[in-house]
Amino acid sequence: MMNGRSGQEGKGQGPGGGPDRPPSGPPSGRQQERAGVEQGAGEPAGLAAELWRQNQDLAAACLDHPFVQGIARGDLPRSKFIWYVGQDATYLESFARAYALAIAKAPDRETMATFHRLLEGVLQELRLHHGYAARWGAGLHPEPSLATRAYTGFLLDVAWSRGVGAIAAAMTPCMRLYAFLGRSLLDRVAPGNPYREWVETYGSPDFAALAAQLEGVLNRWHGEAGGPAGVAPLYRTAMELERAFFDAAWHAG
């Protein structure tokens, strides 16, 4: 697993050693925040599509992971899923905080509104986890695992110290990966699968649309984070941490 801080400059520093700042004028293509949605089915577009393409090895590793395949078949041990739900709830709380910081740093109202919608989506996910907790007896406030700490530490480090372009680069992989996993598994999940709700949630067009909105922010504001070369390490680190999270869930419970 890559170090949770790789791909970052010092606190509050951009690629040249100074603070992250938006470009002096509005970036071209203000509609880029909607670009992914307009592709249909929430497909990635622009730079986000290229970053996703560059990380297909990790996307495939997550799809083929025994934890994810156990969800697809419905035979994942219940104890492993319960562990995952608790750790994921802890992770999502930090994800929500990162969105809140992004709202505060948004350079304009359009970007602020996009992050607000995305924050609402995370709160909806947390409600889903509360449902799992009630049905499965999962605790939603466990001691964070090493994998959870690494991932949340990475996200909050970026959210506190960087601008919206870097924040979007660090957060997009989670959204795009889960949309990919849900859609990939949707046709393979039998009606009686105990994890069907999980797959349907992440395989829904609504979730793909949320992922595309975040990708739109990345496409529009990556210039303030050093352009493609500046955001690529953040994206890669997040993908590595996603795989490590599944590894931890598989070996727990």
From TrEMBL:
Homotetramer. It comes from the Bacteria. Residues 7-19 have a biased composition (Gly residues). CDD domains: TenA_C_AtTH2-like. SUPFAM superfamilies: Heme oxygenase-like. GO terms for biological process: thiamine biosynthetic process; thiamine diphosphate biosynthetic process. Belongs to the TenA family. GO terms for molecular function: thiaminase activity. One of its GO terms (cellular component) is cytosol. This is Aminopyrimidine aminohydrolase. It catalyses: thiamine + H2O = 5-(2-hydroxyethyl)-4-methylthiazole + 4-amino-5-hydroxymethyl-2-methylpyrimidine + H(+); 4-amino-5-aminomethyl-2-methylpyrimidine + H2O = 4-amino-5-hydroxymethyl-2-methylpyrimidine + NH4(+). Keywords: Thiamine biosynthesis. It is an enzyme of class 3 (hydrolase). Pathway: Cofactor biosynthesis; thiamine diphosphate biosynthesis.
